[in-house]
Recover the amino acids of this structure.
């Protein structure tokens, strides 16, 4: 100890900053503490005026010290150039005879302040520690000792890894301490860990910063740890709720949506979750409301456990279970509110024990302490089921569900319920639309011999719903056949209904035997009228259609399209060609013409008609899609059904996003022996000749049984042609599945039945034809019209 003259009450330690100044203001003494505080070595400053250390007016500093009894705050220039304010104490020195000989100036820390700082460190409510640069303990406050479960003396100067368990969180803590030493910069570290003094998991926010001497030398690392478990859990709940917006309701499937809730909640919220729904919801129906005062049957659609194989569950997925009215799930179902409970509740223990008698690993309420939440799934005021959340309470995880957990579970259940209800509604609408769609599509094709065909219709498996794709094979007069494929824009019931209306219209127009381009013109007008009728609802109608007519007598095919993709043809020699048709406007545009493309199809050619959904799934454009289609058509196939499967396998994924209609038709032609044609002059005397031609041809075909009726039909039709039509006149007989008699003339006026009066000379011919034949009609041609009649062939 060094005694300062004139100071009767204070001792100065050797480590304090002390300067000796003579009567002339020259520094004559400089302590090690002064060097550490100011950055000047004794050799640098001894012998120099003390005023050179001051930052500012020396006289003003001296006056400040004198007026305050030798104590004051003085600005000093540090050795590194920075300005530092120090609390100084100046004690005068006396010479041998009592004369003033200089001063001793000290800058020692205030003892009271030093004591308060020590108390603040020891008693801080946060965990504080100090480590040296080798990660050995130097200091620990009381909170840190309590967290670690040790006394400070037990760990002082010990290496950190020797005092903690070898776990991931311990290694992370150690690595961050080293990082502060290596970089010299503060770091922030967060961990979810179990403190050595306890069994519960806690969240910690830890600030670490370098500890330096006044000269800047790194002495160690200080840290403060803040326990923020509640805030951590709140953030986790908020993150889980945010995650549910993306993870629940990814599909419009009731069961999958329920499973998404279970997958999300385990293990973030609970150790086990089950979801049970009413059977009506699973079936896509609206649940029946009303009071529930008895046991209720629910169907298990999802469950998940943090334990492998879910030993908690005693109900298989898809199985139904009758829950007693006193059980938590039914209490939640009845009240529409969450039920928070735990083992020890008689209703809960009784319910669990009832399950335990049937479980491979039974519940044992006295040995397993459980916390439970039963949360109803309610959407739009309708309760559809219940979700049960279970947490196993142990010494390591003793926290039961609280009201914050209930709020989170209710939010998750509410979102799940809305998604389940949306999926249920979508499923019901899709089932209805699909049933309507299939009822409107051809169930059994009418008999015809012009083509052999196979078809496929695949409804979309997307949220958009069933579309308005359709196809048809329509028998026409003269053994011809119409091949139709179309697509209504949009999805859902409205598209299906519109498709049905258009399909009916096509059948009606085909029965009139209009050419393809004229038929599409009339269909376009119809779509425009439908749109006008539905305009008050804001609905718009658009559709595409391709209509082809094939004649097996000539092998001639006429095709017209309304905004529809062109067909492809696989010829008998194995080559494939895309038919170049005029695409035409979509139906409903109005005011634009349609053009027909004509081509010859050899017998055995395969005509492929389809909707654009065939290419949409692979995101192919028209050119790329038709190229792939042509390649698929060349794959060897035993029959047309196999060919359809080949096309779909190549072009479609497992779950198409748009409806697909595909129609493959293989052409056949009638032999020349099956067709007889005669050109007749416009002379009434030729009627007898026409009857003779017909009778002789029937004899060659072995059809004498129908000769009498055929003579009458030929006589009436040829007579009408000569009388009302004019040259050129042609008689044609076709033997196919039926006997067809056709008479063509130059008039474009269509005939019609009428009732002849008693004294009328004519008007009975067509009535007679209608009575004697199975079917009759007329069609317009480029040269006029053709009247035809069919008779069934006699059984052989």
């Amino acid at each position: 100890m060094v005694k300062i003259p004139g100071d009767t009450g204070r001792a100065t330690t050797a480590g304090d900053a002390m300067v000796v100044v003579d009567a002339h203001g020259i520094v004559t003494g400089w302590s090690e503490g002064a060097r550490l505080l100011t950055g000047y070595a004794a050799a640098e400053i001894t012998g120099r005026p003390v005023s050179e250390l001051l930052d500012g007016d020396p006289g003003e500093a001296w006056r400040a010290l004198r007026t305050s009894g030798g104590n004051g705050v003085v600005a000093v220039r540090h050795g590194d150039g920075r300005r530092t304010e120090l609390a100084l104490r100046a004690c005068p020195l006396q010479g041998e005879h009592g004369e003033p000989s200089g001063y001793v100036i000290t800058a020692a820390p205030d003892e009271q302040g030093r004591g308060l700082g020590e108390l603040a460190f020891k008693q801080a409510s946060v965990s504080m520690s100090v480590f040296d640069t080798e990660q050995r303990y130097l200091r620990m406050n009381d909170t840190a000792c309590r967290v670690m479960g040790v006394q400070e003396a037990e760990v002082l100067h010990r290496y950190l890894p020797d005092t903690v368990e070898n776990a991931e969180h311990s290694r992370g803590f150690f690595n961050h301490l080293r990082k502060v030493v290596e970089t010299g910069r503060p770091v922030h570290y967060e961990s979810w860990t179990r403190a050595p003094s306890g069994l519960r998991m806690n969240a910690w926010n830890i600030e670490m910063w370098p500890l330096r001497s006044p000269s800047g030398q790194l002495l160690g690392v200080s840290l403060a740890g803040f326990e923020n478990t509640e805030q951590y859990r709140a953030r986790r709940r908020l993150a889980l709720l945010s995650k549910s917006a993306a993870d629940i309701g990814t599909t419009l499937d009731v069961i999958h949506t329920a499973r998404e809730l279970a997958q999300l909640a385990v293990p973030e919220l609970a150790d086990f979750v089950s979801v049970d729904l009413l059977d009506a919801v699973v079936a896509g129906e609206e649940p029946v409301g009303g009071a529930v005062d008895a046991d209720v049957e629910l169907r298990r659609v999802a469950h998940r456990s943090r334990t492998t194989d879910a030993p908690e569950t005693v109900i298989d997925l898809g199985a139904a279970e009758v829950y007693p009215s006193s059980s938590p799930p039914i209490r939640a179902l009845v009240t529409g509110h969450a039920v928070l409970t735990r083992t020890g509740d008689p209703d809960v223990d009784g319910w669990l024990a009832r399950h335990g008698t049937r479980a491979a690993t039974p519940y044992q309420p006295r040995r397993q302490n459980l916390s439970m939440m039963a949360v109803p799934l309610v959407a739009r005021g309708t309760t559809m089921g219940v979700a049960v959340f279970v947490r196993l309470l142990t010494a390591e995880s003793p926290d039961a569900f609280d009201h914050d957990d209930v709020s989170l579970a209710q939010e998750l259940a509410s979102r799940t319920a809305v998604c389940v209800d949306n999926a249920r509604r979508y499923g019901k609408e899709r089932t209805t639309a699909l049933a309507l769609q299939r009822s409107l599509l051809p169930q059994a094709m009418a008999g015809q011999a012009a083509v052999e065909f196979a078809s496929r219709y695949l409804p979309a498996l997307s949220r958009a719903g069933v579309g308005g794709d359709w196809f048809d094979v329509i028998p026409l007069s003269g053994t011809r056949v119409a091949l139709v494929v179309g697509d209504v824009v949009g999805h859902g019931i409205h598209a299906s209904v519109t498709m049905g209306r258009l399909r009916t219209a096509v059948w009606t127009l085909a029965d009139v035997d209009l050419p393809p381009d004229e038929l599409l013109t009339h269909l376009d007008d119809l779509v425009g009228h439908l749109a006008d009728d539905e305009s008050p609802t804001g609905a718009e109608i658009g559709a595409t259609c391709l209509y082809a007519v094939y004649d097996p007598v000539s092998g001639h095919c006429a095709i017209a399209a309304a905004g529809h993709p062109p067909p492809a043809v696989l010829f008998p020699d194995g080559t494939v060609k895309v038919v170049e048709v005029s695409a035409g406007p979509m139906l409903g545009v109005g005011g634009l013409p349609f053009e027909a493309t004509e081509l010859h199809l050899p017998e055995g050619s395969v005509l492929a008609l389809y909707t654009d959904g065939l290419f949409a799934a692979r995101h192919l454009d028209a050119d790329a899609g038709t190229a792939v289609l042509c390649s698929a058509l060349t794959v060897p196939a035993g029959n047309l059904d196999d060919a359809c499967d080949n096309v779909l396998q190549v072009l479609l994924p497992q779950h198409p996003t748009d409806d697909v209609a595909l129609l493959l038709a293989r052409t056949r032609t009638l032999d020349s022996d099956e067709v007889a044609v005669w050109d007749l002059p416009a002379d009434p005397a030729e009627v007898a000749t026409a009857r003779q031609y017909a009778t002789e041809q029937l004899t060659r075909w072995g059809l004498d049984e129908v000769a009498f009726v055929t003579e009458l039909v030929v006589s009436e039709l040829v007579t009408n042609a000569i009388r009302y039509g004019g040259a050129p006149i042609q008689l044609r007989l076709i033997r196919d599945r039926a006997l067809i008699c056709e008479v063509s003339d130059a008039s474009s006026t269509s005939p019609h039945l009428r009732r002849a009066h008693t004294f009328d000379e004519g008007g009975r011919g067509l009535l007679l034809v209608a009575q004697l034949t199975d079917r009759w009609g007329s069609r317009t041609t480029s040269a006029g019209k053709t009247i035809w009649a069919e008779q069934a062939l006699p059984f052989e």
User: Anything to note?
Assistant: The longest strand covers residues 83-94. The first helix runs from residue 32 to 38. DSSP finds 21 helices and 31 strands in the chain.
